[in-house]
Design brief:
- The protein is mainly α and 220 residues long.
- Strands 1-2 form a two-stranded parallel ribbon.
- The protein is elongated and about 95 Å long.
- The longest helix has 62 residues.
- The chain is built from 10 helices and 2 strands.
Length: 220
């Protein structure tokens, strides 16, 4: 029979830890205070007596007191893990929401651009297009310019990550984009990933997209 000075020594050496010893429901009840800690301490002691494999040098009263202290420590750790998990879940939900929103915005932009482009190809004037879209002519001009800017930015980003783009040319492109530090470069690469949907990629661009993401993560 192995002997330990205290129950805490025994549990730290052999376990089981509190999270492994109680059920999920019991852990929830311990955390919200609806399950007395003493019931779990008594269960530990009863199980220890039942096994006849290990013992502690202190008496049951001291062992129970130590167990209550140890259970409190274990619950502090469990609560911290719960809080961290909740924070991670919340962050993941926010990221998913932001990604979905960004995708919807890209779809809306692509649809708007496609309508304008088709109308212009069919010979419609800007005034007629603006009237059909129920927007002002200045708003239409801004949309068209925004589309040109996005296209230029998109091409610049893809040029930055091409294997045959020299470091000198990369530096010039970063300067043209107003990017002068590492975090800004990472942001520029990541922004490039949102300029197209996967369905928009041409031959070879998926590979460029993968390399852009990898490079962005390295810079970040």
């Amino acid at each position: 029979m192995r002997t330990y000075a205290t129950i805490i020594d025994l549990l730290q050496m052999e376990g089981p830890g509190l999270a492994d010893y109680v059920t999920t429901d019991e852990l929830n009840q311990l955390l919200d205070g609806t399950l007395p800690h003493g019931l779990i301490a008594d269960r530990y002691i009863d199980d220890l007596d039942f096994t006849n494999l290990v013992t502690v040098e202190t008496d049951k009263a001291a062992t129970r007191a130590d167990l209550l202290t140890w259970i409190g420590w274990e619950l502090e750790v469990a609560a911290q893990y719960r809080a961290e998990d909740a924070a991670e879940d919340a962050a993941a939900a926010l990221r998913a929401h932001a990604a979905a929103q960004a995708r919807q915005e890209r779809i809306a932009l692509n649809g708007r651009d496609a309508i304008i482009e088709r109308a212009r190809e069919n010979g419609a004037t800007k005034d007629a297009i603006a009237k059909a879209l129920q927007i002002s002519r200045p708003t239409l001009d801004k949309w068209i310019q925004d589309r040109k800017d996005r296209a230029l930015f998109n091409e610049a980003i893809y040029a930055l990550i091409r294997r045959d783009t020299s470091q000198t040319d990369q530096a010039m492109l970063f300067e043209a984009l107003g990017v002068r530090d590492t975090s800004g470069q990472a942001s520029a690469f990541l922004a490039g990933l949102s300029t197209r949907t996967l369905d928009d990629l041409r031959d070879g661009e998926r590979e460029l997209l993968d390399r852009a993401e990898k490079r962005a993560r390295e810079l970040a």
